[in-house]
């Protein structure tokens, strides 16, 4: 019997094989797990997106935590505290999920604190009245859910699994905001006016949460090929508008867009133009609360140094005892 000696696989051939396995897994809707080979650009995209998502969760605690001490009843206070605490938990799941890609939480927080990574621009708007807590829950958490439900099927396993639990909690957030606005809308004329004013201020920034229009979105096409993203920015924005219009009717509140109307041929609501100049300005750091949010975040990090130190000391002691 004769054997034919095979030439050793070259590094390039191995690379091709791993790349083909990755493409096949993505095509088959299988999950990519932390120890699997993945293209560098896929890893970098996920780190950027998951970090931005995690940062948004913890910065997003600020505008609403602002109202915990002024909630109008014990029931409302308990609900709001639970919601703000959930957001801290979402940050934790997402930083942990991002760590599976080989970055540390310290590194990500450092990038946030030095302005090298972003958080969602929506959190640079102020919460001026109690009704804003309702509008944020209904619209901001509602937009977040619309964006995030498809992420439960994202190709990266740890991100997809984190999103399942996050989405369940986000729907509680959306419902509490809706119920709060409904109570105000059915209350006194002053309460109704306060609810309407909050919706007037939060509607357009919520539509901007879906990101720039599809033809201007630089990361979208590649993310869709990798199945990190499943729907385009404009598709998700449309879905959100179509969900909100009937809900606003039940609330007895008006969405601040004179061009909003049902389009029978598209079977969707048409809506007016979005002021992308405002979006760009907020992204550039010129939103109403950008500086305040970052100052508060950096201060919270510094003031929490002793907690992290205590955690490390406890872990070291625990490790020694176990050894
Ligand atoms: Fe959240
Ligand atoms: Fe939320």
From TrEMBL:
InterPro entries associated with the record: Aromatic_CoA_ox/epox, Ferritin-like, Ferritin-like_SF, PaaA, PaaA_PaaC
Entries under Pfam families matching the protein: PaaA_PaaC (PF05138)
Domain of life: Bacteria
UniProt cross-references to PANTHER family, sorted A to Z: 1,2-PHENYLACETYL-COA EPOXIDASE, SUBUNIT A, PHENYLACETIC ACID DEGRADATION PROTEIN PAA
Protein name per its UniProtKB record: 1,2-phenylacetyl-CoA epoxidase subunit PaaA
Biological classification of the source: Bacteria, Bacillati, Actinomycetota, Actinomycetes, Kitasatosporales
């Amino acid at each position: 019997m004769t054997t034919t000696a095979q030439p050793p696989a070259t590094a390039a051939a191995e690379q091709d094989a791993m790349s083909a396995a990755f493409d096949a897994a993505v095509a088959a809707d299988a999950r990519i797990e932390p120890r699997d080979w993945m293209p560098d650009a896929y890893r970098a995209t996920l780190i950027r997106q998951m970090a931005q998502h995690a940062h948004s969760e913890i910065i997003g605690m600020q505008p609403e935590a602002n109202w915990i001490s002024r909630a109008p009843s014990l029931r409302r206070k308990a609900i709001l505290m639970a919601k703000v605490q959930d957001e801290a938990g979402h940050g934790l799941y997402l930083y942990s999920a991002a760590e599976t890609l080989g970055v540390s939480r310290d590194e990500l927080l450092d990038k946030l604190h030095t302005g090298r990574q972003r958080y969602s621009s929506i959190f640079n708007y102020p919460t001026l009245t109690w009704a804003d807590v309702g509008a944020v829950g209904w619209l901001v958490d509602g937009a977040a859910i619309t964006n995030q439900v498809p992420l439960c099927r994202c190709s990266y396993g740890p991100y997809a699994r984190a999103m399942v639990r996050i989405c369940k909690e986000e729907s509680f957030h959306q419902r509490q905001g809706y119920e709060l606005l409904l109570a105000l809308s059915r209350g006194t004329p002053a309460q109704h006016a306060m609810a309407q004013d909050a919706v007037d201020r939060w509607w357009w920034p919520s539509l901007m949460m879906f990101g720039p229009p599809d033809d201007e979105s630089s990361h979208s096409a590649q993310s869709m090929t990798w199945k990190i993203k499943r729907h385009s920015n404009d598709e998700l924005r449309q879905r959100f508008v179509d969900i909100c219009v009937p809900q606003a009717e039940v609330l007895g509140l008006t969405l601040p867009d004179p061009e909003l109307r049902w389009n029978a041929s598209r079977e969707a609501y048409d809506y007016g133009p979005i002021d992308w100049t405002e979006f760009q300005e907020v992204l550039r750091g010129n939103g109403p609360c950008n500086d305040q949010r970052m100052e508060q975040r950096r201060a919270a990090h510094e003031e929490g140094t002793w907690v992290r130190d205590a955690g490390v000391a406890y872990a070291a002691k625990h490790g020694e005892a176990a050894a």
